[in-house]
User: Which sequence fits this backbone?
């Protein structure tokens, strides 16, 4: 029984598997940019080996993952672009999941009337992290950049290839 | 020492060595209070964790799945031995064990054990659809308010599936049964364990 396996995992098996913790970080494409410019935010998830989270439309038995942004006045977040999923059939039916390192890119519009200064965006992520058990998890991530006149300054931490 | 190494040592320490477990647990909690895994570890290893044998089941108040205007509380099941079963239709491992849960019900219900499933689905409709289309689960049901409900987190329902056996006087008799479910429940049903005089 899976529940019993889960209990065994909790008591004994956890060291054989990584801990159920998803590492989360975020980086803006530009650390500084002018009002009216377009920005992107990359959120990186490091999903521990042996675990997966549901895709945004996983179908079947998986919790859809979500990312919602809270933005300052004048700044708007577009639809987050999640990577293509893997197929998983470990629990019977096929579901679409994400494993390993995942990067989610959100387009951001900095309106022309946005106040100059540091802008902070806060993202709330929700997913169900599953292996032999499922753990509903919620995490927040924040990212800041400066809104100022002049040429945009690209972040050196922006992932290559995005 | 890093928190990951401490966590591994904690999991590898047998439950019989409570002193060592507690020492490692305290090092983790005190040394890495903001680690994202701390809440989960507390629910498993804290000496004060909510869901442990011998404690009273916390007060709960869930909407009935059949009629969400009605509620199910501790009082609804007072005087009964019952198995709380936390699940969700989106949880693959929960679905995978449904056949065994059904079989356990068929064996234990005639012995007086009531089954009580609490759904962590995103909506009542999701749970109802699953019961209509896949597993009927012919016993008492409630809706837990989703996987992120404060009530469930206060009860340390941080993962599913979870099973909690509750005695007639509200005492927790077994949690996350790790051997055969039916045998564990049968053992826990001994008169001294169920709150029966």
Assistant:
């Amino acid at each position: 029984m899976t529940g019993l396996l889960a209990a065994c995992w909790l008591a004994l098996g956890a060291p054989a598997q990584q801990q159920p913790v998803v590492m989360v970080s975020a980086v803006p494409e530009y650390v500084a940019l002018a009002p009216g410019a377009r920005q992107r935010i990359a959120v990186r998830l490091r999903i521990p080996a042996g675990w997966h989270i549901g895709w945004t439309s996983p179908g079947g038995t998986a919790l859809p993952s979500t990312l919602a942004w809270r933005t300052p006045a004048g700044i708007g977040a577009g639809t987050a672009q999640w990577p293509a999923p893997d197929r998983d059939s470990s629990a019977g039916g096929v579901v679409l999941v994400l494993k390993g390192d995942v990067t989610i890119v959100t387009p951001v519009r900095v309106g022309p009337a946005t106040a100059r200064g540091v802008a902070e965006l806060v993202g709330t992520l929700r997913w169900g992290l599953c292996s032999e058990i499922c753990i509903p998890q919620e995490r927040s991530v924040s990212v800041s950049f400066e809104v100022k006149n002049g040429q945009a300054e690209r972040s050196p931490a922006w992932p290559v290839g995005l | 020492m890093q928190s990951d190494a401490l966590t591994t040592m904690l999991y590898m320490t047998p439950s019989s060595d409570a002193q060592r477990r507690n020492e490692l647990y305290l090092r983790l909690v005190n040394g890495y209070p903001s680690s994202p895994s701390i809440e989960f570890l507390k629910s498993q290893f804290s000496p004060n964790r909510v869901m442990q044998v011998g404690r009273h089941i916390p007060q709960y108040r869930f909407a009935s799945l059949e009629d969400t205007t009605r509620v199910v509380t501790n009082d609804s099941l007072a005087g009964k031995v019952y198995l709380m079963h936390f699940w969700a239709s989106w949880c693959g491992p929960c679905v995978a064990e449904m056949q065994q849960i059904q079989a356990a019900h068929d064996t234990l219900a005639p012995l007086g054990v009531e089954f009580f499933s609490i759904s962590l689905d995103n909506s009542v409709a999701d749970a109802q659809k699953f019961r209509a289309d896949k597993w009927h689960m012919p016993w008492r049901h409630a809706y837990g308010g989703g996987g992120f409900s404060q009530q469930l987190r206060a009860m340390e329902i941080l993962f599913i599936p979870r099973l909690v056996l509750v005695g007639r006087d509200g005492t927790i008799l077994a949690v996350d049964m790790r051997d055969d479910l039916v045998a564990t429940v049968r053992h826990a049903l001994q008169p001294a364990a169920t709150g029966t005089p």
User: Anything to note?
Assistant: The interface with chain A takes residues 4, 7-8, 11-12, 15, 35-37, 40, 44, 88-97, 100-101, 120, 122, 146-148, 158-163, 176-181 of chain B (CB under 8 Å). Chain B has eight helices and seven strands. Strands of chain B lie at 61-64, 71-73, 81-87, 113-119, 140-143, 162-166, 172-175. The two ends of chain B are 50 Å apart (CA to CA).
